[in-house]
């Protein structure tokens, strides 16, 4: 006679089956997603936030959520932010659960970004994505996939927007600072960081050509603030203990400061830059020389 399965095992199998069915129904009813989504999200959320050890149910919940977002983002602009916000559940995983699945999660997030970057427009959506990628900068197994996704977003300014500029700069800085991976990756992350200045120049030109005077003034102020955030990020890397990273950061900082003629930087912002960036870097370099 066969061994009778334990009741707990049967319960988990049933829960996993129901969860898979729920995900399948959601994917097959994308035209009714607005009606289904609150209940689907609540069910997945309860599983994610109540599970403290890796198991089949939480695995199906997390990857089911990623599948739903990946598949529905191109079709449902009106709930894009809701779908992306739901991915914050991944950030709430218990550490033991997250560590078990994070490499695979990051690969799925990378695939989602590559397929749907053009559909992500809001700061909220990008904040979720960059948070998921930034975490991987400190995670050995998942950092390669995380950086690959960030490179896809930032390379040649492909998907950099005013809505995600600061978020991308901060994410690139985290990869540049990280000791996970080779020094070469930190150098490439620095290049992404500094290369984003080209977007600021483009947005400056675009604003002057198509906007009203008041809108131009506001946009130029925002661009100036983004530029300051960029050079502040480079400043931190100018003190990195790794010589190759430090020297490359200094060179790129110099380029950003001297090559910003296409960006409107107000006098008060230059004063702030000299005070917070240039003089600080010089003092710190003299101190460690």
TrEMBL record:
PANTHER family: GUANYL-NUCLEOTIDE EXCHANGE FACTOR, PATTERN FORMATION PROTEIN GNOM PROTEIN. This is ARF guanine-nucleotide exchange factor GNOM-like. It comes from Trifolium medium.
């Amino acid at each position: 006679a066969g061994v009778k399965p334990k009741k707990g095992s049967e319960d988990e199998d049933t829960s996993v089956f129901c969860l898979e069915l729920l995900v399948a129904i959601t994917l097959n009813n994308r035209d009714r997603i607005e009606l289904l989504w609150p209940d689907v999200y609540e069910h997945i959320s309860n599983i994610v936030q109540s599970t403290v050890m890796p198991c089949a149910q939480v695995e199906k919940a997390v990857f089911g959520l990623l599948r739903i977002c990946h598949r529905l983002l191109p079709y449902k602009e009106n709930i894009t932010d809701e779908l992306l916000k739901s991915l914050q559940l991944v950030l709430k995983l218990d550490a033991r659960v997250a560590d078990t699945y994070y490499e695979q999660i990051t690969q799925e997030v990378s695939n989602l970004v590559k397929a749907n970057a053009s559909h992500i427009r809001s700061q909220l959506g990008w904040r979720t994505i960059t948070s998921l990628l930034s975490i991987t900068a400190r995670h050995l197994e998942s950092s390669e996939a995380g950086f690959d996704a960030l490179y896809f977003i930032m390379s040649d300014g492909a998907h950099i927007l005013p809505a995600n500029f600061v978020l991308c700069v901060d994410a690139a800085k985290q990869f540049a600072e990280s000791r996970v991976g080779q020094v070469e990756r930190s150098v490439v992350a620095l290049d992404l960081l500094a290369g984003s200045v080209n977007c600021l120049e483009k947005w400056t030109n675009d604003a002057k050509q198509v906007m009203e005077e008041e809108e131009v003034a506001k946009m130029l102020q925002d661009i100036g603030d983004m530029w300051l955030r960029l050079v502040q990020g480079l400043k931190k890397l100018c003190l990195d203990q790794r010589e190759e990273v430090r020297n490359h950061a200094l060179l790129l900082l110099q380029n950003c400061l001297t090559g910003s003629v296409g960006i409107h930087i107000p006098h008060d912002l230059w004063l702030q830059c000299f005070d917070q960036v240039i003089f600080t870097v010089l003092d710190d370099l003299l101190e460690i020389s």
